[in-house]
Write a structure and sequence with these properties.
The complex is a heterotrimer of chains A (503), B (326) and C (150).
Chain A lengths: L1 H13 L2 H19 L5 H12 L4 H26 L8 H12 L3 H35 L3 H16 L6 H15 L2 E2 L6 E2 L13 H19 L11 H4 L3 H22 L5 H16 L12 H16 L1 H7 L5 H12 L8 H4 L1 H32 L4 H20 L2 H19 L5 H23 L5 H5 L1 H22 L1 H12 L1
Antiparallel strand pairs in A: 1-2
Chain B lengths: L1 H25 L5 E5 L6 H17 L3 E5 L6 H9 L6 E6 L1 H11 L11 E10 L1 E5 L8 H10 L5 E4 L8 H10 L4 E4 L3 H9 L5 E4 L1 H9 L4 E6 L24 E8 L4 H16 L1 H9 L9 H25 L3
Parallel strand pairs in B: 1-2, 1-3, 6-7, 6-8
Antiparallel strand pairs in B: 3-10, 4-10, 5-8, 5-9
Chain C lengths: L2 H20 L5 E2 L2 E2 L3 H20 L4 H4 L7 H4 L1 H20 L1 H16 L4 H22 L11
Antiparallel strand pairs in C: 1-2
Classes of the chains: A mainly alpha (503), B alpha/beta (326), C mainly alpha (150).
């Protein structure tokens, strides 16, 4: 088939010694950048663009792509081992991943995360290869009404993310949405809740809140009792998942791939969305949903696979239309331009060698990353055997520097500390923080889609009903909402009955 | 006595000259940051990142582009205005800066900075916009479009990359010049606003050649006109609004600014380097590859242009503010 | 004071804050919803949930988990110290510069919280302070304040 021969050509291009080397450097650098909080993939890519100027287009793209994936992989490492999400798509991984680490299964979690990411990424690329142009056309049909409907259902799913009841998670989501409105309103230019503080004009960033609520919050909780933490000697066997865990992971991985691939096509924070939709899906499908949050491998396998699949398919609108939907494809677009390649709808047909070289390098990149990450798992897990009383001040410092490095703002450091204390308080009060952060990230898009839809339709709500996609999703979300309330009210009766029987 | 004072002052003046000359001679001794107030991948980004490595060759120090997005360019603009005036932090300026500032003023708010906080180094481009519609839209010419818009006031909608931004104003100017009433749906950035046209979520939009040309060539959007006075080299078949009898033109300039107190020798050196790079073949090639045209204005010309533009924009905003519901 | 009540207070506080400030924003019209719509509705909902949980959280002490006020400060001494130190770091670090501020911060943490001996704490602080400075400033080229010594 034409596709296969093109792919083989692509591999020929990508498998030159130089290009593999570049891919490796990119992946390594990306992993380092991903593990360190605050310095995200965009900064990493940006720092290296001048270095690519001397290379040919294919080589440059390959290296930059490697950085991007590497950062995605690196982000999950800190989530699992330290309960600090490296980037927004890893927030969900913290929930069960960290619990697994506390039970000594951290190595297994890291392995499954890397493994699932690889499978998700590779399958996603295959899908991309065959379907890029047609999927790009589908993606553009997703306008504000559809986006709003999708996010609505996502938020309702978010309500079942937490360990506690639906009614406890909902106010956290509301709170997160409210915090998300801080800053300039993009549709009218009005400042909301900023009180004239310049650093708040752009809203409260993910990094200070996540680092604070998860990182500092975790440290504060842990230091309460004593500073001695028992971390046993880690045997090689324990680094790998056991048979049960492997068996349990297959289904989530495949579901995660499909889910991630589809959601990744959509504009906006698709990979965050895909990670928590996958999590809630796994929780619902599981025979033991109440164990989610205590260290179920499905809660790591699904989301990690989904977010990787999503970051691959996020390239589709860019490859098919030349419109970058996120910062990483954007930077790649520029790298292409600098090297004389013009992205756009004609990109695939006009520059096949670059396109297929890119595709081939995606496979190679994913492969390199899993080869890199597996031995690194052992390294990272051993890093954590450093006594906690030395480790925690260093982690605090890294959180502070990471936050500062984004915008050089002391106000953000204050936000970091504030959310650290708030996260700590919420933890003590048994309220879940993950829904709060996720709501904060996705909330602005929800609001904007709603308002854009009304602006388009001059105030008529029929715009939601006219679109089949939007309509279906809204109906589904209403049903889901009612179901959630039903479940939240009912189980109490069953529980009470059990108590009575027990007595 | 007098001669002593005279000698002293000559010596002081001389030493000042020598010091500032050595300032310029030494500059730059460390990497230069170029703040881009807009999102990665956008019009400004492409030009700045094309410029950076070429300038680096001439200056001998890395030139790093850093995106500081937010508030339609205000966050980055503010950072640039408040940066230390030592020539190591420059801003990729664009017409969005006077756009944003005048909007604040028109709404009776004090802008966090103004164009007087900057000194102009020069421009990369000064491009007009295309008026585009979805590829299967019923409008084949601009006349069709205007006629339909007049028949349905307030029903057609356009997408823009952001409120009062570079892709919003040309549409407003065009609408007023053509005498039509249309609705505005803001999106966040050039990319999403283009996707909206491709996906037929809106009826039309205006955007710049760098973003739009490849979509036009790939038949994902149809261009009805260029909102300006001259046809573009890269799209010679597309008529201009002036030709078609509509008096609308708008040029989104993109260039480099420095904090106003930057010492003159450094400013001069930057202007010199910029002129050489921007007019050099390597840069021109990249820009033309993207579908745009290079147009270099030096610092003083840019400053004059910004002043006249700001007045025009202020007048436009005064009208727009009157029409906005409160 | 039960846990649910504690949470409800936070929600009420956030809701009231949101209410106060979002009523000052323009509501807009149906065909152009203004910036107040979303925050206002959220604040109202938050207040409702806050009140709801406040009432529900009324249960007597032990069954639902409670947070006692006696011995409160004693138990939370360590976190309080950490928070206080971090606040001090944040306030002074642009003035002192990263290297100095981080070393002092680490030193006090090692001494006061981790309870190392004076020399051990000092050695660790210098090692990690200088090490991190080298890593971030030199290797990663992160912009860090120089402080008054530069």
């Amino acid at each position: 088939m034409d596709v296969l021969s093109n792919l083989l050509n692509g591999f020929q291009t990508a498998l030159t010694f130089k290009n593999v080397y570049l891919c490796f450097i990119g992946c390594l650098w990306g992993t380092v950048v991903g593990v360190l909080p605050g310095i995200g993939p965009l900064a990493g890519i940006t720092l290296l663009i001048p270095a690519t100027f001397g290379m040919d287009a294919t080589g440059a793209i390959i290296m930059l792509a490697g950085i991007y994936y590497g950062a995605m992989y690196g982000g999950s490492t800190t989530s699992i081992l330290m309960n600090i999400p490296g980037e927004s798509a890893s927030v969900v991984t913290c929930i069960d991943g960290y619990q697994m680490a506390r039970k000594g299964r951290g190595g297994a979690a890291l392995f499954i995360a890397a493994w699932g990411s690889w499978i998700g990424g590779t399958l996603s690329i295959i899908g991309l290869m065959f379907l890029a142009p047609s999927l790009a056309n589908f993606a553009v049909k997703f306008g504000p009404p559809e986006m709003f409907a999708l996010l609505l259902i996502a938020f309702i799913l978010l309500g079942s993310l937490g360990k506690g009841s639906f009614f406890k998670t909902v106010p956290m989501i509301l709170f997160g949405l409210l915090v998300g409105t801080i800053g300039m309103d993009p549709l009218t230019g009005t400042m909301r809740f900023t009180h004239g503080i310049k650093d708040l004009y752009d809203g409260i960033g993910f990094i200070p809140v996540a680092m604070g609520a998860f990182g500092i919050g975790e440290i504060l909780t842990s230091t309460e009792e004593s500073l001695v933490r028992f971390v046993g000697k880690v045997k090689m066997r324990e680094l790998l998942p056991n048979r049960d865990e492997l068996r349990a992971s297959w289904a989530p991985i495949f579901r995660g791939t499909g889910l991630g691939f589809l959601i990744g096509l959509l504009p906006g924070s698709a990979h965050v969305l895909s990670s928590f939709v996958s999590y809630t899906l796994e929780k619902r499908l599981s025979k033991k949903p109440e164990e989610f949050g205590t260290g179920r491998i499905e809660g790591v396998a699904g989301p990690e696979t989904a977010n990787n699949a999503a970051s691959e398919s996020a390239m589709i609108p860019f490859l098919g239309l030349g419109i970058p939907t996120g910062p990483a494809p954007a930077v790649m677009m520029i790298a292409l331009l600098i090297h004389g390649v013009r992205p756009g709808p004609l990109f695939i047909s006009e520059q096949p060698q670059v396109f297929w070289g890119l595709i081939a390098s995606m496979y190679i990149g994913n492969l390199i990353l899993i080869i890199l990450n597996l031995p690194l798992v052992g390294l990272f897990v051993n890093l954590l055997r450093v006594p906690f009383r030395i480790l925690f001040p260093v982690i605090l410092l890294i959180c502070l520097v990471g936050t500062y490095s984004v915008n050089s703002s002391v106000v953000e450091l204050g936000i970091l500390l504030f959310f650290g204390v708030l996260g700590y308080i919420f933890r003590k009060l048994d309220f879940d923080i993950a829904p709060f952060i996720l709501a904060m990230i996705i909330g602005p898009t929800l609001e904007m889609s709603f308002r854009q839809s009304l602006m388009r339709s001059a105030g008529s709500f029929s715009i939601f009903l006219k679109s089949p996609i939007a309509c279906t999703l809204i109906v589904m979300s209403c049903l889901l909402f009612l179901w959630n309330i039903f479940r939240a009210v009912r189980p109490k009766k069953a529980w009470e009955k059990a108590l009575e029987e027990g007595e | 006595m007098k001669s002593q004072v005279k000698r002293l002052s000559v010596l002081m003046a001389l030493s000042l000259v020598i010091i500032s000359a050595s300032f310029a001679a030494d500059y730059p001794t460390k990497p230069i940051t170029l703040i881009n107030p807009q999102a990665p991948g956008g019009t400004l980004d492409v030009q700045a990142r094309a410029f950076a490595p070429l300038a680096e060759k001439m200056l001998g120090q890395p030139v790093v582009v850093v995106n500081k997005t937010g508030a339609t360019g205000m966050v980055g603009g503010l950072a640039g205005a408040q940066a230390a005036p030592d020539g190591y932090t420059l801003t990729v300026g664009s017409v969005n800066i006077p756009n944003a500032i005048e909007w604040e003023i028109a709404n009776n708010r004090k802008p966090p900075f103004t164009r007087h906080d900057f000194v102009c180094i020069g421009t990369f481009t000064m491009s007009p916009t295309f008026l585009i519609v979805p590829p299967d839209s019923p409008y084949k010419t601009l006349a069709d479009f205007v006629a339909d818009a007049k028949a349905k006031p307030g029903q057609l909608a356009f997408s823009s990359g952001g409120l009062y931004g570079m892709s919003h104003l040309p549409a407003e100017i065009f609408a007023r010049a053509a005498g039509i009433k249309v609705r505005h749906v803001p999106y966040t950035g050039g990319g999403p606003s283009l996707t909206a046209v491709v996906g037929k979520q809106v009826d039309f939009s205006v955007n710049y050649p760098a973003n739009t040309l490849s979509l036009i060539r790939g038949n994902k959007v149809r261009a009805l006109a260029v909102i300006g006075a001259k046809r573009l080299k890269s799209a010679p078949n597309i008529p201009t609004t002036k030709e078609l009898g509509i008096d609308a033109e708008y040029y989104g300039w993109v260039g480099i600014l420095a904090p106003v107190k930057t010492p003159k020798p450094i400013v001069d050196k930057l202007r010199d380097v910029m002129k050489k790079v921007v007019e050099g073949k390597a840069f021109v090639d990249i820009i033309e590859q993207a579908g745009d045209e290079v147009r270099f204005l030096n610092g003083e010309e840019l400053a004059k242009y910004m002043n006249t533009e700001s007045e025009k924009i202020a007048k436009l905003y005064a009208e727009m503010v009157k029409e906005t519901p409160k | 004071m039960t846990k649910e009540r504690g949470g409800s207070l936070i929600f009420l506080a956030a809701g009231i804050y949101g209410l106060v400030f979002s009523v000052q924003l323009p509501l807009g019209k149906w065909n152009q919803p203004g910036p107040a719509v979303f925050p206002l509705s959220l604040s109202i909902l938050l207040c409702l949930f806050g009140m709801g949980w406040f009432i529900r959280g009324k249960g007597a002490g032990k069954k639902q988990g409670s947070v006692r006020l006696r011995g409160f400060v004693q138990k939370f001494m360590t976190p309080i110290r950490i928070v206080g130190l971090t606040a001090a770091f944040i306030l002074t670090f642009e003035f002192l510069g990263y290297l100095l501020a981080s070393t002092i911060y680490l030193f006090i943490l090692f001494l006061w919280v981790s309870r190392y001996r004076l020399w051990a704490a000092l050695a660790l602080a210098i090692a990690f302070g200088a090490g991190s400075w080298l890593f971030f400033e030199k290797l990663l080229a992160t912009p860090l304040p120089r402080g008054f010594l530069s």
